[in-house]
Amino acid sequence: MKAAPRFPLCRSGLVVALLAVMLPSVAEAQRTDGPPEPPAPDGPTMVASPPRGATAVARAHRIHTPPVIDGVLDEPFWADLEPVTDFVQRDPVDGGLPSERTEVRIAYDENFLYFGFMLHDSDPSGIRANILHRGGMIGLDDHIVIGLDTFRDRRNGYIFEMNALGTQDDAIFTDESIEREDWNWDGVYWSEARITEAGWTLEVAIPFTTIRFPREEVLEMGLLFFRSIRRKNETVYWPQIPATYRGRYAQASQYGTLVGLEGITPGRNLQVKPSLVTGAQKLGAVAPANRVGEVGLDLKYSVTSSLTLDLTLNTDFAQVEADNVQVNLDRFSLFFPEKRDFFLERAGLFAFGDAGETQVFFSRRIGLENPILGGGRLTGQVGRLSVGLLNLQTGREGEVGGANNAVARVRADLGARTSVGGLATNLAGDRTHNRSAGGDLQVRFLGSSSLDLWAAQVWADGAEGTPLPGGTGAGSASLRLRNATWGGALGYTSVGEAFDPALGFVRRRDQRRWSGEASFTPRFEGSTWARQLTTTLAEVDVRGQDGVFQTGRRSLDGQFTFESGDGVGATLARREEVLALPFQIRPGVRVPVGSYRFSTLTVNARTNGSRPLSGNAAVSRGDFYHGTRTEMRFTGGITVSPRLSFQPMVARNAVSLPVDGGDFTTHVASLNVKSALNRWLFGDVLVQYDDLSRSLQTNVRVNWIHTPGSNLFLVFDTGVQTGELPEPRESRWERRTGVVKLTYMWAL
Fold first, then answer.
1. CB 522 within 8 A of CB 543
2. Most C-beta atoms within 10 A of its C-beta, which of 314, 354, 534, 626?
3. pLDDT at 11
4. Distance in angstroms (rounded) separating the CA atoms of residues 207 and 702
5. Strand 112-120 relative to strand 102-108: parallel, antiparallel, unpaired?
6. Phi/psi at 16 (5° precision)
7. What is the dihedral of CA 563, 252, 381, 114, to 10 degrees?
């Protein structure tokens, strides 16, 4: 019997709210393209004529004697160069005058692009500089970002980020969007910083072999500079990127122009990186120790100035950080993000679908159970086309046979901010074959507003070669209207009962989901204590492909941020679930078929993460499958010095259900200890425990960057069972692994 709709979208008032925000969104987006409005008499001081991407120009000057990269701008040529100084504030006042002066000078020779920064600070003792780990959370420190759109396509580019200690992080972004995984690219470049009585200085040298650019005699690139002054929670940009554009420093369409580059060539850029792995692994108490000894090889070659070929042989991921322990109290799969560098580089190009929900390609499906014997990847641009080809062969591991994994991705730029593309995947195993293909369209307009469409189809055969039953298609359409203050979104997603891309991730099948959202985010630019309020009204209605109601959720969320960077918030949610089948919430405890309604209140508080002591706490309580659930979670940060920090985490769920064994409590705890001798030698220890598995897990990783792009890794990984054993004399060790991995990169 079909259930009546519990969350009728059109009757809830949400669609009316969405329409209400569209007009101010459009008006504001158009306003920000013109000159800024004059400030109120007592308001903040605004930049009269802020540099915008269309008019902002910076010049690089050719030099003949390279500087010593030591963080001291004492070479005579630095003083002769005209600096870029007209930075514009984005936080706390969008379009305001910076509180501190920033100077950037640019030079180049035939091999390197150089940047010299003078970052004035009226209180140098307040400069935050604590992160020594390469790729660490540099955003918690005072830091600088250089953005380079090397092909001047106003869509894609490189990010180079450095803090006041010279510590580096970097990313490759795609289509004006930068995600967490994009930061796992490790480019080779040099940077050194010094804290002085006037602020801090930074010297940067980026080899032209690290970045890709067209082969032209006179070259122009898109350019962005970003500075964060953490104790003030102040950010400044050159050129100005108004808050209407939420892509921040990935907003390549708003970059300025770097001119003056002449007579430079991309070079052939051949990198050869052999690796040696040795160690031992012991699983369980009975299995013998398995000794590890492998030689691998990674090769990177620039086929053209815009196409890069990566080849890999005997690929090993021993140095990859461990997954965070999660406890699942839902009937759908948990999502664990990709953490392997090979797959994270240029991951944005292969993105297709809804991240964490319905991804047609999810690289974590490759090589987790089976070893990767070898393969290759070709990525880059051909004219207005972005292309990505991936092919990897996995070997047999126990009962699991090897397979060939292939992915092809293409995207064409249409107009200024529109792209259309397609993706195809193919998994060819011993007795199964799984193929998928789809197309997508993205239109960006009016600042951060967008229209996104995608659709895909799967062709899959079971073990006997027969097609799997049920709908094998999926698709989504979403419209977002956003600016600095207002936001609205409307979306529809359909996923078939048998939509199962073998190289993808699908959290929930058999669904037709409508979703809507309206948000209001005012900024208090004249206040000395309040920074921003974010309020969001959201609604979701999920039905099966047969039209029967499954899930509904309506929520009101409010988050308040103080000028100090601290914040508080609350979320009130109303949810309904209709279970057609029972599910096991924990061993021996099943939630029966039925209709369930939930009301939940969550409150949270957080402190500025750049402080020596910081924390984030949240408590929620409400209904849970005719019972109750109380959840508490705390994450903290303790920075003793740049060489030692601690990040504890504790989570507790207290559940009471009206079924046998329905009263239970789960705990998850972890401690991450990060230490560093310097920017080249650092390590971390991650200890995790949950009382569901009763497993105490420890992962120790030490990384020595002995030369740029080359590493020595020491990894120790253990699991110990702390619960009751089936046999009293059985060993409590679940696994013990010790691995040494040495890599060395030759740039030819």
1. no
2. 354
3. 42
4. 27
5. antiparallel
6. -60, -40
7. -90
Q: Determine phi and psi for 301, rounding to 5 degrees.
A: -140, 135
- Sign of the torsion angle spanned by Cα atoms 258, 260, 266, 272: negative
DSSP states of 346-370: THHHH--EETTTEES--GGGSSSSS
Ramachandran class of 367: left when φ > 0, alpha when ψ lies in -120 to 50, beta otherwise:
left
Please give the pLDDT value at position 468: 59
CB within 8 Å of 491: residues ≥ 6 apart: 476, 477, 478, 479, 513, 514, 515, 516
Local structure of residue 23 (DSSP, 8 states)? H
- Residue 227 belongs to what H/E stretch? strand 218-229
- Specify the 3-state DSSP secondary structure of 234: strand
Q: What amino acid is encoded at 17 in this protein?
A: A
Q: Where are the domains of the chain?
A: 32-262
CB-CB contact of 330 with 356 (8 Å): no
Q: Is there a contact between 704 and 686 (Cβ–Cβ < 8 Å)?
A: no
- Asked if residue 239 has a cis previous peptide bond (ω within 30° of 0), the answer is yes
**Beta-bridge partner residues of 734:** none
H/E stretch holding 511:
strand 511-520
Q: Enter the pTM of the model.
A: 0.87
The region, left, alpha or beta by phi > 0 then psi within -120 to 50, assigned to residue 384 is alpha
Helix (H, G, I), strand (E, B) or coil at 225: strand
Which residue type is seen at 11? R
Cis peptide, bond prior to residue 288, ω within 30 of zero: no
Report yes or no: 387 and 380 within 8 Å, Cβ to Cβ. yes
Query: What pLDDT, on the 0 to 100 scale, is given for residue 462?
Result: 57
Match domain 32-262 to its CATH number in 1.10.1040.10, 2.60.40.1190, 1.10.1020.10, 1.10.3720.10. Answer: 2.60.40.1190
The number of C-alpha atoms within 13 Å of 433 and in the hemisphere containing its C-beta is 5
Question: Are the C-beta atoms of residues 416 and 54 closer than 8 Å to each other?
Answer: no
Confidence (pLDDT) at 169: 95
Provide block-wise average pLDDT over 10 residues at a time, the chain (748 residues).
42 49 47 43 62 86 96 96 96 95 98 98 96 91 97 93 97 84 84 98 96 92 98 96 86 95 85 92 69 88 89 81 75 76 82 92 86 92 92 84 93 90 93 92 91 96 58 95 93 96 94 97 92 97 96 98 96 96 90 95 97 97 96 97 96 95 94 95 95 92 93 93 79 88 90
Helix (H, G, I), strand (E, B) or coil at 567: strand
CA 517 to chain CA mean position, Å: 22
Q: What is the DSSP string of 469-499?
A: SS--EEEEEEEEEE-SSEEEEEEEEEE-TT-
Per-residue buried b or exposed e for 441-472, using 16+ beta carbons within 10 Å of the residue's own CB: bbbbebbbbbebebbbbbebeeeeeeeeeebb
- Give the separation between CA 161 and CA 136, rounded to whole angstroms: 11
CA 653 to chain centre: 27
Helical ranges in 353-419 per DSSP H: none
Task: List the structure tokens of 630.
Answer: 């109380």
Q: Which residue has the tokens 């799967």?
A: 458
Q: Is the dihedral of CA 118, 119, 122, 124 positive or negative?
A: negative
- Whole-angstrom Cα Rg for the chain: 27
Q: Is the dihedral of CA 447, 361, 686, 162 positive or negative?
A: negative
- Residue 575 burial (CB count, 10 A): 20
